[in-house]
Amino acid sequence: MKKGTVETTPLWEPVQTETLSWRIVSQVRAAVFSGQIKTGDFLGSETSLSAQFNVSRMAARDALRTLEAVGIVEIRMGAKGGAWIAQGNPERFADALAIQLHLIGVTGEEIFDAQMAIEVTSAELAAQNATEEDLKKLSGILGELDKLRDDPLAFTDASLRFHEAIVESSHNRVLLAQFRALRFVLQPLLAPNTTHAIAARVIRSHKSVLNAIEARDGVKAREIMQQRVKVIRSRVLSGTAAQHAADDE
């Protein structure tokens, strides 16, 4: 077997006519998960794939379109064209997942439950794994926040970047991909509830969690983040932004 190509490798089973393109997609996906084919491998051309799977070129073309749409392959044109197993792209996954979350109508409760699961764990891991560069990034965003107290949209965006930077500092790519998807659906919930007083409270909380991360105190970072998400959840879902603002003044 020639390394880096699956074009002539007998990995595939003939498919039945009633499930042509989907059966091709399923087999290719299974081969990726099993490690039989890897990033950068040449899957084949439309013509060669139709021969390998014993299907029409139209069925092979439809399968390739689906594989490209879900990010499994990239299609290259020209003399060396064809389908290649794609490089991983978490940003593409995050964007697609965010759209799907919106389309299925996830509830605020579901969003904040997910935020709790992702960010509490991330804060603890960040205390263990954050680099000096990570800490500088967090400090920089914190400095931005102090100047944005009277701009709810800009403040919310910067605050979510701070949260994302904590997840980045965990150095866990699964958590990061999930949070990036979550961020898209979080922002519309948070911005309308951000007042000057709430912004001050958020900044204090962010400073506290950053201090814990800098001190490498994972337990403390976890506790602070857990409490912060609880406060956000309560404020947004109960619609009591005004009351929380009064409490902070």
- According to CATH, the fold-level topology of the largest domain is Four Helix Bundle (Hemerythrin (Met), subunit A)
- Largest beta-sheet characterization: 3 strands, antiparallel
Number of strands: 3
CATH level 4 superfamily of the largest domain: GntR ligand-binding domain-like
Helix/strand order = HEHHEEHHHHHHHH
The overall average pLDDT, rounded, is: 88
CATH level-two architecture of the largest domain = Up-down Bundle
What is the CATH top level name of the largest domain? Mainly Alpha
Major sheet: arrangement of strands? 1-3-2
How many separate structural domains? 2
Output the structural class. mainly alpha
**End-to-end distance, in Å?**
71 Å
Give me the Rg, rounded. 23 Å
Helix content: 55-70%
Contiguous runs where pLDDT drops below 50 for at least 5 residues? 241-249
Number of DSSP helical runs:
11
Q: What is the 3D form? A: elongated
As a percent range, the share of strand residues is under 5%
Question: Can you tell me about this structure?
Answer:
This protein is mainly alpha-helical and 249 residues long. It folds into 2 domains: 69 residues, Winged helix-like DNA-binding domain superfamily/Winged helix DNA-binding domain (Arc Repressor Mutant, subunit A, Orthogonal Bundle); 159 residues, GntR ligand-binding domain-like (Four Helix Bundle (Hemerythrin (Met), subunit A)), CATH 1.20.120.530. A 3-stranded antiparallel beta sheet has the order 1-3-2. The longest helix is centred in the middle third of the chain and has 22 residues. The termini are far apart.
